Amino acid sequence: MSPVTFAGWSAEYFNDALSFAISLGLLLGYRIYLRIRLREDRHYTFQAINRTARRQWVANIMSDPARTIVGIQTLRNSTMAATFFASTAVLLTMGTLTLSGNYEKLHQSWHQLNVLGSLHPGLWTLKVLFLLSDFLVAFFSFAMAVRMFHHVGYLLGLCADCRPKEVTPPIVAVHLNRAGKFYTTGMRAYFYSVPLVFWLFGPLFMAVSSGVLVIVLYYFDRAPRTIQEHLAMVPAPDPENHEME
C-alpha cells in the first residue's frame, strides 16, 4: 500500500475505525473484568447465582416425582420466552436486510449528525453487515436455548425407576445451565446491537453508547453483596401511594 493510499484511507475511515476499536475494547474489557471478579468470588454476578440456583432447582424437582409438573411448567415458560426472542431476532434480521437496500433513500437523513465519520456507501454496507451478524447470533442462541429446554423437559419427565443411570441431577443441571448460557448469549447480542445501531448515525454515537451500555450491564450483572445493599438498589415506596393502598 502506497503512502498516498494509506493517507487517504486514514482520512476517510480513521474516526470510524477508532470508534469501533473503542467500542470493542470497552465490551471485551468488561467481559475480562467479570471473569477476573468471578475467579475471586464465584457469586459476583446474577448469572453465577442463577447457575447455582438452577442446579439446586433440578435436584429439588428430581427428588420428588410430585414436583415434575412444576418443573415442566417452569421450562414451558422459559421456552416461550426464548421462542419470543428468537422470533423477534428474525424480524430484526428482515428489517436489517430491508435497511441495507435503502441506502440511497436513507443516507441523507441518517447522516445529518455524522460530522466525524465517513459517508462512503461501502462503509454503510459493512455497518449493516455487522448488525445483521449480531441479530443472527441472537437468533441461533435463542433457538439453541429452546432446543436445550426441550431436552431438559424430557429428562425431568423420566420416573426414578425408568431413568438411565447416566441421567442424574448434576447431568440434567448441566443441560439446563447450557440452555441458560445460550439464553444469556442471545440477550447479550441484543444489548450489543445498541452500539451498532448508533454507529449508523456516526462513530461518536457508537463510542458514547458503548460506554453507557457497559455501565448499564454492570448495574444489571453485579449481584448485591449484602441484604442492605440489595434493599438500597430497590426504590423506596412513595409514602402517599402507600397510604392510599
Question: Care to give the gist of this entry?
Answer:
This protein is mostly helical and 245 residues long. The chain has helices spanning 3-40, 46-63, 68-100, 103-110, 121-156, 169-199, 203-221, 227-233, 239-244. It has one domain.
Blueprint (SSEs and pairs):
Layout: H1 3-40, H2 46-63, H3 68-100, H4 103-110, H5 121-156, H6 169-199, H7 203-221, H8 227-233, H9 239-244
Helix pairs in contact: 1-7, 2-6, 3-5, 5-6, 6-7
Structure description:
The chain is mainly alpha-helical and 245 residues long. It has one domain (14-221). It has helices at 3-40, 46-63, 68-100, 103-110, 121-156, 169-199, 203-221, 227-233, 239-244. Residues 236-245 have low confidence and may be disordered.
